[in-house]
Amino acid sequence: MTRFPNRRHVLAGSIGAAAAAALAAPANAEDAAVIDARVNLALGRMWGKLPDTRNLAAQSKAILIMPEIIEGGLIVSGAYGEGALRMNQGGRFEVTAEYYSFASASLGLLAGLQTSAHALFFLTDDALQQFRTKDGWEIGADAEVTFPDAGLIAQINTTTTQTPVVGIVFDQDGIMAGIGLEGGKYSRLVR
After folding, report:
1. What is the tally of structural domains in the chain?
2. What is the mean pLDDT of residues 151-172?
3. Average confidence (pLDDT) over 152-165
4. What is the rounded CA–CA span in Å between residue 164 and residue 81?
5. What domain range is 75 assigned to?
């Protein structure tokens, strides 16, 4: 006997697809001042919650801070956020060099809604140069990125890791099963 989906399943799938489409393609990008304010707050939270990231930052050429990535959907899901690339200027990361967006979309057994922040620490000049010159830079395809557990951050440095980029995810809130940063693309924003 063939079973057809009931209205609730169709409605839930439609809402999930609409939410994913809305998240993956933003209607209005934030202006530079808003992005900078959010990046400053995210840096403060990261330094406070994960103090070992300061040592990692001291070894980095630059940090890309994505202060709020919104991920959501049901079956079809998407994620979007905007952030800034901050260059290491004597151990300080106060001046924005460029603005970037992160977007991803996926299809599969995914469900939920989540917000998170993440930072990419560029440990080599070559990795930073590749990131800055390629539009549509992708984790896993354009560079190998290590995402250590919070307890392992203190052990990572330029001599112990073979990975030119280290990523840290923090400020996770909500429930999302089956989605990650892999496959998402970073693109430069003009602000």
Report:
1. 1
2. 67
3. 59
4. 23
5. 7-189
